[in-house]
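User: Run a structure prediction on this.
Assistant: Running it now.
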Amino acid sequence: MSAAKGDLSIASLAGPLLAAHPVAGPGLVLDFSGWVVRVRANTDALLDELRFYYKDFLAAPGAAERGGSAPDCEIVALEGPAPDPAALGLALTDKEREPGKALKEAYADLADGRAVHKLKTGMLFLFGDGLNLAYGPCLANPNQVVNFINNRFIEYALDLGCLLFHASGVTRGAPGAGRGLAFAGFAGMGKSTLALHVMDQGPETVFVSNDRLMVRREVATAQGGPGGPGFSDGALTMYGVAKMPRINPGTVLANPSLAPVMDAADRARFSALPPDELWSLEHKYDGFIDQCFGPGRFRLVAPMTALVLLNWRRGGGAFAMNRVDIAARPDLMPAFMKETGLFYDTRHAPSETDPSAGAYLALLDGCPVYELTGGIDFHAAADACLDLLA
């Protein structure tokens, strides 16, 4: 069990860091489908980078002070040297990984929250009881700051009673109406690639999330959750994450809409590679949705009317999509079940931290589930999925 020296707390750790690296100005205000977060920093360079990344989610002027209230969440990102957790008095516990995989994170649970230390980059994250702080070489690791911001929204959605899915998502129709698909699959199956193919072939489709979805059965209220009123009582709602897809060269070359992310030199170099080598590359691009598909095609809250599970393989024969009884297919459950991870503060969780398969099955009761089998065919699968969205 993690521990700390003396009366160490998240607040006592953050105090000296904030004093040594003061922030100034109003910072950056983001609107995640009605959930407003303000990000402040001690360097304009970091705010500028975050402003570019989140350009689809910049809040309207005054959003942080609507009705005289504060933002729903305050986050501070401090650029500084990588801290030494031991010097701060933190006794950390390594986060266990699968055998053969390198350790990535260590953590300490304190009375008022949790500290997480990224072992490779040295970044330190403190969160709990309204305090959210990222400290360390932020400018060298802006993706970790982005993930920290997004994890605050994930925590918010989980506290609403959502379950976490390892899935991407798209929707079609007006907010609170229409239809939406979640895509999940085992490692390397291409759930994000399929979502982007659906976006390419369906001009009215809207992106919801790349790699994480939070799903709950809606309860009709005046506000209707972060998506606003209009979500049907008893229907499933999926909440996405404002994370741009990380796409490999093969995905870019196979989808005309993604052309803006790759320059001419890379296009020539990657086009010359054999298909097997191309699809196994670790090289990644940020696929900015507005750059590739135009403005207004990224929405974080949508109905979820079906779950599509990718269980195909290259050279697997004829492509097929069939509806399955997920309760009779426990082999498919790991494709979408996801642990909440270290960045979820479990102290205020509405239920068990990582629900059982039974909880997922209960949530999906009545939701159509489809399995993609045979050979990988993104175009045929996108056509089939567009039929489900019609």
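Residues 142-159 form the longest helix (18 residues).
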